[in-house]
Amino acid sequence: MGISGIREFLSLNGQFSAQNLANCVENYQLMMNDLNDLHVSWNEYHATIERLAVMIDRSGWSFEAIVCIARGGMRIGDICSRLFDRPLAIIAATSYGGTGGRDRGTLTIAATLTTTVRLSGNLLLVDDLVDSGTSLRDVKHWLKTHAGQQDELGAIAEIRTAVLWYKAHSTIEPDYYAAHLPDNPWIHQPFERYETLSPQDLHSRSIA
């Protein structure tokens, strides 16, 4: 119908007002945004991780450890750590907040890594997606600049990046990606449902 169609419909039905139009336009835009969004099931999510792992393996590049960006990259890092039999390190970074986590703000990176081994040599840096490119670029830079300055980081030879989804408007291109998204959709991942639940919401579903 479009926004002009909404205006005409309200006028014909005697319901036209600035507030009615604003409400309808907002609902219409939300509906269109949802239609353009990418909704990922658990099966699709795990299949995408496996596809990414195959791409990394076929490249023939060898690495000593995996660094995942929390929270989005934790599941990818965990699975790749098991598949490649490499130690996993975690670094927390966040830049999103607001309603639905769609508001991008200033990137905050943790002061230290969490790991049980000293990282050195070639590192694989993983995240779930690259949107603007800021998080992946800045965390990679953080690793390079802190190399040799912390107990957890030794000399780094090379860092390559890997993500499930690479959005076209990103300012950087990851070394490995399972899917390129030319339309830059908002991605709904299967675990996001827990962001709208509390432990109390699960009581009725629990099995004694």
Low-pLDDT segments, ≥5 res: 27-33
Integer count of domains: 2
Helix and strand run: HHEHEHEEEHEEE
Please work out how many helical segments DSSP would assign: 5
Largest sheet features: 6 strands, mixed
CATH class call of the largest domain: Alpha Beta
Q: Which architecture name of the largest domain does CATH use?
A: 3-Layer(aba) Sandwich
Describe the structure.
With 208 residues, the protein is an alpha/beta fold. The chain folds into two domains: 2-36; 42-188, Rossmann fold (3-Layer(aba) Sandwich). 35% of the residues lie in helices and 29% in strands. The chain contains five helices and eight strands; from the N terminus they run H-H-E-H-E-H-E-E-E-H-E-E-E. The strands form two sheets. Strands 4-3-2-5-6-7 form a six-stranded mixed β-sheet, with helices on both faces. Strands 1-8 form a two-stranded parallel sheet. Strand 5 (119-130), helix 5 (134-146) and strand 6 form a beta-alpha-beta unit. The longest helix has 19 residues, at 18-36. It is globular, with a radius of gyration of 21 Å. The relative contact order is 0.14. Mean pLDDT is 84; it is low at 27-33.
Short synopsis of the structure:
The chain has 208 residues and is an alpha/beta fold. The protein has two domains: 2-36; 42-188, Rossmann fold (3-Layer(aba) Sandwich), CATH 3.40.50. It has five helices and eight strands.
Q: Topology of this structure?
A:
Blueprint: H1 2-12, H2 18-36, E1 38-39, H3 42-59, E2 65-70, H4 74-84, E3 88-97, E4 103-109, E5 119-130, H5 134-146, E6 153-167, E7 176-181, E8 187-188
Parallel strand pairs: 1-8, 2-3, 2-5, 5-6, 6-7
Antiparallel strand pairs: 3-4
Helix pairs in contact: 1-2
